[in-house]
Amino acid sequence: MTFALRSSCLWALAILSAGPALGDVQFNVSFNDPDGSHAAYQSSIRSAVQAAGAQWARYLKTPAGVTPSIEVQINFGNQPTANGTSVTSGYVATRGGYDVFEQGMAAEVRTGIDPNGTSPDVTIEIGDAYLRNEMWFDPDPSTRLAPVPVTRTDAVSVFIHELGHALGFNGWRAYDTGELPLAAGTAGAYCSTYDERIEVDPGPEFFFTGAVAEARYGGPLPLTSGNIDHLANGAPGLGADLVPDLMNGVVYYRGYRYFISNIDLAVMQDIGVPLTRTEIFPPEILSLKQESNGLTTVQWTGANYRLRLERTPSLTSPWVVVGTQEQGTQLSFTTPEGDTQFYRLVAE
Ligand SMILES: [Ca+2]
Ligand SMILES: [Ca+2]
Ligand SMILES: [Zn+2]
Fold first, then answer.
1. What is the pLDDT of residue 292?
2. pTM of the shown model
3. I need a surface site. Which of 31, 98, 106, 242 has the fewest CB within 10 A?
């Protein structure tokens, strides 16, 4: 039996055929590992961070003729998971009584100018036990098709998330009250482009407000309670439907591969990160595999929610719904009879 693989998206065929211009950002990785105790992990970490960077680079628009180079320094610590941040920030404008700053990585992508010279642009700190006992390093982090062990967390997914903080999901608001360090209009009052769009009143829930994000989500994005650089809360909290998102602050599933979603990109667009395109990015089928148990598994990039997978034995026959998926990036189904099947993803 042979399978023909077709990836399409009803509302974006023209865009697909036009071939989007992809951004061009490089990622260089260095290690703060003076005693060499993590030497065995360095090459895996470097590959995974660069693959994670490439996921963002697909969407980032850079100044003509400039290839920003993001220097990522890896530190090792004792925290339970990992964290990531830009090292510095770049002034954008004064508005609403605040000096507004973008994350340093966003500044370099947008302007092509490194905001802190040869110093690292981004630091990612990885907990030692998390690295050794929890993170799984993909044998091919650029294609991302090998099964993720159900006992481990995908390292590329973790690094895409941390770079998401370095690029935009970061600020100075207090996690509990949402307060900024200085009141609007006071001398030296400052906030980030992300802070600027967080709605604190009336509280206690905090929301990200931005025209693009609200249009895509259907309203302001609920932020994680007590962890407002992230989306979603566990049910029955607000935004439980965003728990599977790359930038959620509730849970990172083992055995699961995260991708940048259209919600994440909407936030980036709202806070002024330059993107190669401003419309919704279509999902792409990454792999289609017949399992030995009579099932076929299809995997796609996670740029959308609420997808419908359809198949047809020939392009002149009607499309048949295989299944729908509220969240996630793969679907398994009974392998259909017949020599050839075409597949497509449709946004609902
Ligand atoms: Ca740089
Ligand atoms: Ca730098
Ligand atoms: Zn995070």
1. 84
2. 0.87
3. 31
Domain parsing of the chain, residue ranges: 21-270, 285-347
* Average pLDDT score over the chain: 89
CB 250 within 8 A of CB 257: no
Task: Please name which ligand lies nearest the alpha carbon of 83.
Answer: 3
Displacement of CA 235 from its chain's centroid (Å): 22
Predicted confidence band at 199 (pLDDT cuts at 50, 70, 90)? very high
CATH classification of 285-347, choosing from 1.20.1250, 2.60.40, 2.30.230, 2.160.20? 2.60.40
Cα(122) to centroid(ligand 2), Å: 8
| Separation of CA 66 and ligand 1 centre (Å) | 12
CA 109–ligand 3 middle distance (angstroms): 21
**108 CA to centre of ligand 1 in angstroms:** 7
Q: How far is the CA of 85 from the centre of ligand 3 (A)?
A: 9
> Strand 98-103 vs strand 190-192: parallel, antiparallel, or unpaired?
parallel
CA of 57 to the centre of ligand 1 (A): 14
- Looking at all shown ligands, the one closest to residue 115's CA atom is 2
> Which of 105, 141, 101, 142 is closest to 123 using CA atoms?
105
What is the rounded CA–CA span in Å between residue 164 and residue 53?
Answer: 10
Note the helical H segments in the chain: 13-18, 39-57, 104-111, 128-129, 155-167, 211-217, 262-270
Q: Per the structure block, which two tokens stand in for 302?
A: 């996670």
